Amino acid sequence: MGKAWKGVKEFIGVEEVAKLEFLVSLFAEALGTFLLVLIGCASCITWVEGQAPSVLHIAFTFGLAVAALAQFLGPISGCHVNPAVTIGLFVSGNCSLLKSLCYIVCQSCGAIAGAVVLKLITPNEQVSQGLGATDLGKGVEAGQGIVMEAIITFLLVLVVHAVTDPKRSDTKGWAPLAIGLAISVSHMAAIPFTGSSMNPARSLGPAVILTSWSNHWVYWVGPIVGAVIAGSLYKMGFRNTKEIEEASYDF
Question: Is-annotated flag, keyword Cell inner membrane (predicted)?
């Protein structure tokens, strides 16, 4: 009974979110997502008519931005900056329920704020071209978009779990680079299909500011499905089990 009650408390996370330092983590998540949307979506803007940014340009901007943020914010909040990553870590037992909910709210607010600032500093002519809003590629159906978003988010969440696994010594110091590369290669593959969101908050920011909701639900369903599958698989079979688990809850 005592072990079960302890598991329930860790699952909900009341004690964790009641600590004063948790506010710093929330601010870090909001700030990180703010910067990700501001910098990442800025790379999607077309400045010369007929010369849209290349896939490689956008892919490396997002990947390197997350790598840089992870290096700075990782020790503070874990640098999720992505509701799908938070959900994946919740499913695997590495993030409590209340912490996950608070993170997702802050990530969404940060993303919207990032899109607001980007709109304010961008000329109206460029704003009219989309501010990096995500939508399905020509001929891509919603179901196909969901599958693509699920696949690339699945890869991202698996990599996040692998490089943050406390029982793996071979990944120490490589987390930001590995995560950044996973995001970059996913963008290279998926931008023509869906714009490569793999982050519901990243799609939410521009959608709110531009009031453009075309296929927006795809960018929540796809990443969440991929994250849930990745978190479940890592917990059930991919995690390192050589040492006693300390970072997850078990009932």
Answer: no
Nearest alpha-carbon partner for 84 in 61, 66, 107, 64: 107
- What confidence tens digit (pLDDT) does each residue in 190-237 have? 999 999 999 999 999 999 999 999 899 999 999 999 999 999 999 887
Note the Cα 27 to chain centre separation in Å. 16
pLDDT tens profile 158-171:
999 999 888 877 77
Residues near 205 by beta carbon (within 8 Å), at least 6 away in sequence: 37, 41, 111, 112, 113, 114, 115
How confident is the model over 23-57, as pLDDT tens digits?
A: 999 999 999 999 999 999 999 999 888 788 999 99
Residues contacting 139, CB < 8 A, separation 6+ = none
The first and second tokens of residue 36, run together, are: 């990700």
Burial of 54 (0-12, 13-18, 19+ CB in 10 A): exposed
Dist. CA 175–CA 159, nearest whole Å: 8
3-state secondary structure of 136: coil
Are 237 and 157 in contact by the 8 Å Cβ rule? The answer is: no
What percent of the chain has pLDDT above 90? 72
Q: What one-character DSSP code corresponds to residue 215? A: T
Task: Give alpha helix (H) positions in the chain.
Answer: 2-12, 14-17, 22-42, 55-77, 83-91, 97-121, 124-127, 142-164, 175-194, 200-210, 218-233
Give residue for tokens 């990443």. Answer: 223
